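Subgroup meeting minutes
Present: P.N., E.W., G.H.
Scribe: E.W.

1. P.N. recapped why we're keeping a running log of single-chain structure predictions: easier to compare across weeks, and new members can see raw inputs and outputs side by side.
2. G.H. added today's entry (765 aa).
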Amino acid sequence: MDVTLSQARECWSEVVERLQHGEEIVLENTRNRQAAVMRRLEADTPAGPVWSSSKARQELGTLVAAAQEGAQVLTVGGLPAAAVTRHTPPRHERPRPRNTAGLTGLGDVLDGLLADEPETTGLSTGVAALDGVCGGLARGSLTLVAAPPNAGGSLLPLQAARAAAFDPEQPVPVLYALSGVPLQVAARRLIAAEASVPYAQFAAGTLTPGQRDAVRAADGRLRAAPLSFTGPEPTAQAIAEEAARIDGLGLIVVDRLQHTRAEGTPLSGRSLPAAVRTLAHLAAERQAAVVVLLDTDDAQLTARLEADRAFHLTRPGDGAAARITVTARDLGTLASVEVGLDMTHLRLLDQPPLPAGSVPGPASAPEPPPRPTTAPARTDTAAPAPGPAPARRQPPSVPRRGTARPSARTVPGGSAVHKDGGRVGELVERIEGKVRTVLAESGGEVAAAVERLKKTAIPDVMDLLDQSRAGGRYDFRNYPDLPDILRKRGRQEADDIWEARPRWTAPPQILDRIGDKAVTALDINGAYLSALKAHLPIGQLEHHLGPDAGGPPHDTKRSGVHLVTPPAWEHPDLPNPIGDREEPGPLWITESTLRLLLRLSGPKAGLCERPLIHESWTSGSTEQLLETLRRALVQVRSSALAARTAEDEVAYEYVKAMYSKLVSTMGESNYNRDLYRQDWMHIIRSQAFANLWRKAWAARQAGLTVVRMMGTDELHLAGDWRTARAVGKDTLLFPEGREVTEVKPKQTYRLEKVAEGSYREREVN
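Output recorded in log:
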């Protein structure tokens, strides 16, 4: 796992968990290009300075710098857990020719090009029509498959893997890297295509007896195929390490690169260019073909990845045909072919489907497709229409000389532990399947489908939460007794917990400084969705005195609610982090608000005094309880925003209804009888408010003026917010868009002073 220091701080609990499962973690300081690698201790503890987990998280830059001089020791729970040492990233250079001395004549090159048996042979893409125009997949080279969402782009790498691993004459070892795709999903896709059974029925467990027989008939060649999977969410370096363990490796499939950053997914976001360079180096070093799927057809990103060759797959009109355009980095478009899509069995067909109502011509022997110049074309990979797979000769029981047949069980890393166990992809498929079903039953009417899904959003999201927690040690349906402070005083009255909801406008002395600057109201996307990543108590809340009343110090491994006397706030240009409370004296706040106050009172911020903690109700906590569900909802939401079809419009509204209703009904609600956790509800809401406050603070540090902050998702700023950057970073502070990491401008206005201390908004055209 390769992460920057800021990424590591954000997902530190995941970093520690992966480290304890044996995964190497590379920390990169992007400011000075220093890097360090953390490895789990397997033997004696090395000599060196000791860093606790909490101290390491706070001072990652110092830790990486210290590792350049010598080994550092990281402790978790007071016990030595890992060694942190200097890391030198590999230089991604293609191997040089063996003989660099002297000159080479054109005739010598021509002799090599015309040789009957070249040193290396390429591989088939699995589509003869495509092989005919591009020569198949060249060994030693990386091919990028770029496709928009829902176009069927994953079918091309899938077809190439089948063509290599299931070749009846000479099967080629294949390594299938899983990034963002669960192992079970990838395996089902391969089996459905190879055994010619409907994928949707296979995934739903509703195969007919005949279809189950077809899978059993393919059992022999499926088990004998030299195809291995990596562990979930590998880094590019981890893929290279797994590839080194497979003898005779011919093809590496990476499914997939995600163009937007996804937490816990190294092959996503800004890391993609470096990852592609590593994979291109791997292809040249191992003389294997590498096929990488990109989940977007964005031309700028495709160009930035600098692949030697790219296949751009589009699906005009969402029909039963796909167009594949072959481009080269220095030459542009080389060729284009149209092929059929068999979405039932997840296969590409050599010929596009006939138009509706057309009559096929007289039967004749078809002319064989052109033979690829680098690899023999398979004639049994695709049929003109979905149907039973043709009978194929079983592969020889003894491997050919120089060819190994690894299995998923023998390849190290195939059993790597990952916190969601591949469940994110399963949840995504379940959500998208529900959307397709309801939209079809509603006759394609978006409004009707959305209305139906909103009505079932609460039981649906609870089912998804249940599925995301399958096998977990903590049962969220275990309702512990809650203290009286978390119970409502009456039907129309609230309980005693103060959530720090902001409702703030800058005072006149601040507004006077703005002058004629434009003020923009920004909408923070998916505020409650992001707030699902919060420290939630997972056991019975226990009462104890706070440190200022003789009790234990605040424990970052516990969470709950706390009775505090908040500190005085003396910054008129920033809202009080405690919200717009007017009553003085102690009040009950959540873990989210307390952590924000403690951070602001620390030496780095120094904005206020430390809050006085008088008593607390807390339990052991985790940030991961809702994380699998949150990641699935974010993934569906992002895909829906990218495609913008009728189905995606429904999916977007469905996801929004699920997470908003989950938060609003997890307390005392008659609409949700499966979850009674008022403490969770208050903590998640407070987390959303705390997240918004941090954005206001970052804006002020970047030189912007905070004019107003309202609710969970509304922030009004004066100044050039589009170019503002976080202090000490080169990233935009407020990237514009609809992703959960982006913002939307809702309104732009100027403040017109009408009297002393009184202003009115004037719209900007």
